[in-house]
Amino acid sequence: MVETHQNKPPYGMIAILFIGAFVAILNETLLNVALPSIMNEFEVSATSVQWLTNGYMLINGILIPASAFFIQRFKNKSLFITAMTLFTIGTLLASLAPIFEVLLVARLIQAAGSAVMMPLLMNVMLTAFPIEKRGSAMGIFGLVMVVAPALGPTLSGWIVEHYGWRMLFNIVLPLSVLTLVLAFFKLKNVTPQRDIKLDFLSLVLSSFAFGGLLYGFSSAGEKGWDSPVVYGTIIVGAVSLVVLILRQLRMDDPMLEFRIFKYPMFALSSAISIVISIAMFSGMILIPIYIQTIRGISPFESGLLMLPGALVMGLMSPITGKLFDKYGARVMAIIGLVIVVVTNYYFTQLDMDTTYASIMILFSIRSFGMSMTMMPVMTNGLNQLPMKDNPHGTALNNTLQQVSGAIGSALLITVMNNRTQSKAEELAADAMANVEPATAAGLSEQAMAEMQTQIMNQAMLNGINFSFLVSTFIIVIALVLAFFIKRVVPAKETVEVKAETV
């Protein structure tokens, strides 16, 4: 049947979904700053405590691809309530966790609930709003997508410092309970359902594919590319992904519809989003390393430095949504990416005296450019899909962003480490060449240690600047692709779906 939308979008219902998604995304980054405190309390290693974030990410990577099936098969009200119930149970369990193992299980339960929330929210908006108003709707959605993860580290740094890590869950718990109660009484069913069955083998392949790729690339920065764990999981993930794609292409009702890449603007928007996600991590990872390791500024102040940029993106999201509805994605993406390329290049010029205010302003301008690019590009791609394929489009978009983010993190950390190591050797050789043998022999241990620290800081600074240069070239690729964006209309439906509105 032909795609339809409600005359009046269900704003109250979407607000409930927004709160749930905001709490879930905020929770994803909230715990990072608290990991050292948890290590001390439960007396666990850094490797063990890292599973609180790695495990969360992996569960998301496994369940987000499956969200396309859940959204098509089940009513959006029951799906959201189930997800929010899991998230609430996990939050309560984490708050009361007597041992580390209980805390880890609680985080995995939270992740199982949060994984479906973002794809579900996007599908409800795509169903509820006509194409000419989707930009404004998705722009408001950008508030959740951008502000929540940026608030996490800053907020948690302050809370952990004053109240302890359990307070992080105690703050989230009443919000999740409130969302659950509102959802029970106020949510209605607006997304179409289809009577489809889950292919268990597809789910297993998807878990190995995206779970393997996420874990492999996320571990590369810490363990190194020569670690069997890293290249082993990446190989398993890549092989599983190929088998998964081949299986889905042979199925009439696939769990994940890869055939939607035949729509050129969706394929182009996915490519641009992947490139941007890879490069975006240059700011999220390299700036905190520079601020904390080289300049010795506290983690809390490091998070505070990024907060104005997040607020700029949040405030701009509704505005860029309206501009997208009026002018389309192409002009928005080109202007935004030019801003990102220029500001990213300025980050290649960091030195030991770059002021805190300068970095904050540059990062905020860079965030302004990102806000003009990310949501308009994604929305334009989704707009070309017929309604029946929206769940697959949102599932693939969210999955690709997670995987490309992990790849970007691994790539830029590797570039930084390799450049730092080679520059340190070069600086050390130059330093020893300029010191007389008699003077070198007379240097105290403290003087040698200070010289080594100075060399390493200078080498790491060079490594960070070079990584920013690499990420700048990556963003240029996205800028070139942006010139090929065209405004689209949704493809016509080819299969009949049923939509409930009660």
From TrEMBL:
Membrane topology: Multi-pass membrane protein
This protein's UniProt keywords: Cell membrane, Membrane, Transmembrane, Transmembrane helix, Transport
Compartment annotation: Cell membrane
Xref: InterPro entries: EmrB-like (IPR004638), MFS (IPR011701), MFS_dom (IPR020846), MFS_trans_sf (IPR036259)
Residue span, Major facilitator superfamily (MFS) profile domain: 13-490
Domain of life: Bacteria
Pfam family, one: MFS_1
SUPFAM superfamilies registered for this protein in UniProt: MFS general substrate transporter
PROSITE patterns the record matches: MFS
Keyword Acyltransferase: no
Membrane-spanning ranges: 12-31, 51-71, 78-100, 106-126, 138-159, 165-185, 197-217, 229-246, 266-291, 297-315, 327-347, 359-378, 464-485
Matching PANTHER family: MAJOR FACILITATOR SUPERFAMILY MULTIDRUG TRANSPORTER MFSC
Family, similarity comment: Belongs to the major facilitator superfamily. EmrB family.
Name assigned to this protein: DHA2 family efflux MFS transporter permease subunit
Organism classification: Bacteria, Bacillati, Bacillota, Bacilli, Bacillales
